């Protein structure tokens, strides 16, 4: 028999988006927060650069809007972009009020603003080079001290429960969530008047990623199965500079290193970014990542070099204390010479289609943060716009929920039915499919694509989905099986979206259609009855 929990709001994920939503609602609502691992684990924790916002008299809202449109290669939703930027300052003020220790400088103790690739002004407010950590620690502290927020760590969400899935008449609405408790392998029911997916992105679908293990596309896959449209999944951002070191695995070297003068070099010490873009190292991430990928393939090298050692050692240690210490742990002293870097899957620009209030196609179901497709990023995300999006849209969702309280719901979510499944003695199948999926996504649906590569990937993912569905129907579920199921579904959405775009634009680059079209639209996929 399943355990049942009842709350006003059930939030899946405890990154910047989920925590903001919880804190904004908790004074008047009972909130449950489910996390796959420890409540401190998630992509927000690893964000280094900062939050983009118009905070200087030398900057303007229109300038930030134009930079975002340019980085998104004119595929972003202009209304969504303006909405986000116009609310940027008030969101920074909210974070400051929460206690986030942003970096100050000088006798005036003004907040320090840095510049990153694609930005025309210094508008990145930060906490040294560990902004995500500072935001995460502050919001978690406030949330764990709030009497109306209940944390449920080590829970892996399985699916959103909707009225259609329960066979009930009327408009489809979310009423709860099934989740696997990893501590005792019991499947629990979390019932809520509102459900919010704040699960992060899906970069774990690729072999190399800068993201933590939690980025397995769970929210996107669950929303798809619940009946939500999914948008722009072909646009996966590869961060240009992750430390190339077998032990480091996923350590990201912030955009701000290039923003403060870091240069990209070939093994012989020559710079190369000038061949690809007049902005050189400060070009948007898709251009820098593609340039590095090109040079690596052209020369047959495993990495390029990032050099900021021409700056004074104290400057480097003051501006990048976390990066400096971590690199030193792996034997790389960035004050003395260049460090080896490679691109890695970093950010999912697409996701669950939402409106300005983060509401999805399913009533009472919201999606926020990297899980959502708001229209802000277009074909490529501008650096440090992601944390801003988390705060802006989470607060907008909170205001919408507060203004539209639902009627008391008498629906009871039934127990999870395990009566027809058995323990598996073939978990090797999961491990094998896991490796195959991430490898062919890296090889065929990575930084540079072709029709032939995409077709090969589609054939493989179709076979995998069939095998996974059979396995899921007959054996008891596990964390690995749930993540594999979600990643395979997300991979399928990425491939289908990429196959439908007959141009190169932003993060989607194909050798068969190297030019961008004069006009273009977002890619929106709608689930069929059989896919739900």
Descriptive notes:
The two termini are 26 Å apart. The chain is α/β, with parallel strands linked by helices and 532 residues long. A hairpin with a 4-residue loop joins strand 4 and strand 5 (110-111). The model has no long low-confidence stretch (mean pLDDT 91). The protein folds into three domains: 4-234 and 349-403, 3-Layer(bba) Sandwich (FAD/NAD(P)-binding domain); 242-345, Succinate dehydrogenase/fumarate reductase flavoprotein, catalytic domain (Flavocytochrome C3, Chain A, domain 1), CATH 3.90.700.10; 428-515, Up-down Bundle (Methane Monooxygenase Hydroxylase, Chain G, domain 1), CATH 1.20.58. It has helices spanning 16-25, 43-46, 61-71, 78-86, 88-98, 131-144, 218-226, 255-259, 285-299, 313-319, 321-329, 385-403, 428-444, 451-474, 479-500; strands at 4-12, 31-34, 51-52, 104-105, 110-111, 113-114, 124-125, 149-152, 155-162, 174-181, 186-197, 230-231, 236-243, 263-265, 304-307, 339-348, 351-353, 365-367, 372-373, 524-525.
Biggest β-sheet description: 7 strands, mixed
CATH fold assignment of the largest domain? FAD/NAD(P)-binding domain
Distance between the termini: 26 Å
**CATH homologous superfamily name of the largest domain?**
FAD/NAD(P)-binding domain
Radius of gyration: 22 Å
Number of domains: 3
CATH class of the largest domain, anyone?
Alpha Beta
Q: Kindly report the average pLDDT value.
A: 91
Oligomer: single chain
Strand content: 15-25%
């Amino acid at each position: 028999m399943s355990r049942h929990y009842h709350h006003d709001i059930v939030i899946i994920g405890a990154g910047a988006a989920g925590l903001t939503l919880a804190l904004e609602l908790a004074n008047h609502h009972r909130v449950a927060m489910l996390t796959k691992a420890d409540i401190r684990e998630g992509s927000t924790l690893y964000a280094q650069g900062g939050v983009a916002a118009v905070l200087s008299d030398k900057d303007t809202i229109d300038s930030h809007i134009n930079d975002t449109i340019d980085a998104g290669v004119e595929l972003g939703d202009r209304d969504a972009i303006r909405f986000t930027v116009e609310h940027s300052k008030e969101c920074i003020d909210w974070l400051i009020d929460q206690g986030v220790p942003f970096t100050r400088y000088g006798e005036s103790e003004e907040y320090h603003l840095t510049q990153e690739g694609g930005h025309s002004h210094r508008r990145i407010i930060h906490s040294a080079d560990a902004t995500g950590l500072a935001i995460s620690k502050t919001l978690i502290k406030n949330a764990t001290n709030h009497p109306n927020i209940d944390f449920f760590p080590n829970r892996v969400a399985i699916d959103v429960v909707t009225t259609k899935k329960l066979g009930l008449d009327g408009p489809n609405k979310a009423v709860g969530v099934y989740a696997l408790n990893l501590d005792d392998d019991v499947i629990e029911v979390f019932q809520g008047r509102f459900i919010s997916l704040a699960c992060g992105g899906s970069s774990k679908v690729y072999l190399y990623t800068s993201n933590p293990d939690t980025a397995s596309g769970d929210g996107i896959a669950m929303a798809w199965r619940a009946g939500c449209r999914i948008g722009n999944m072909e646009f996966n951002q590869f961060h240009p500079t992750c430390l190339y070191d077998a032990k480091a695995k996923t350590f990201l070297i912030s955009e701000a290193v290039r923003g403060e003068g870091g240069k990209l070099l070939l093994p012989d010490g020559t710079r190369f970014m000038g061949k690809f873009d007049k902005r050189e190292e400060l070009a948007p991430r898709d251009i820098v990542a593609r340039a590095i990928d090109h040079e690596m393939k052209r020369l047959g090298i495993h990495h390029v070099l990032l050099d900021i050692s021409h700056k004074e050692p104290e400057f480097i240690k003051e501006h990048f204390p976390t990066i400096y210490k971590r690199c030193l742990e792996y034997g790389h002293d960035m004050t003395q010479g260049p460090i080896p870097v490679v691109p890695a899957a970093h950010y999912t620009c697409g996701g669950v289609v939402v409106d300005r209030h983060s509401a999805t196609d399913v009533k009472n179901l919201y999606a926020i943060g990297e899980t959502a497709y708001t229209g802000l990023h277009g074909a490529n995300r501008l650096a440090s716009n992601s944390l801003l999006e988390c705060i802006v849209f989470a607060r907008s969702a909170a205001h919408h929920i507060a203004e539209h309280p639902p009627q008391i719901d008498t629906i009871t979510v039934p127990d999870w039915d395990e009566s027809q499944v058995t323990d598996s003695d073939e978990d090797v199948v999961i491990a094998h499919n896991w490796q195959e999926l991430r490898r062919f996504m890296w090889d065929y649906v990575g930084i540079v694509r072709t029709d032939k590569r995409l077709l090969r990937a589609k054939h493989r993912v179709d076979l995998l989905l069939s095998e996974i569905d059979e396995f899921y129907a007959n054996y008891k579920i596990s964390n690995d099986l749930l993540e594999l199921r979600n990643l395979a579904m997300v991979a399928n959405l990425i491939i289908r979206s990429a196959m439908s775009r007959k141009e190169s634009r932003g993060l989607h680059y194909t050798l068969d259609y190297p030019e961008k079209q004069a006009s273009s639209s977002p890619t929106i996929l709608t689930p069929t009855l059989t896919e739900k």
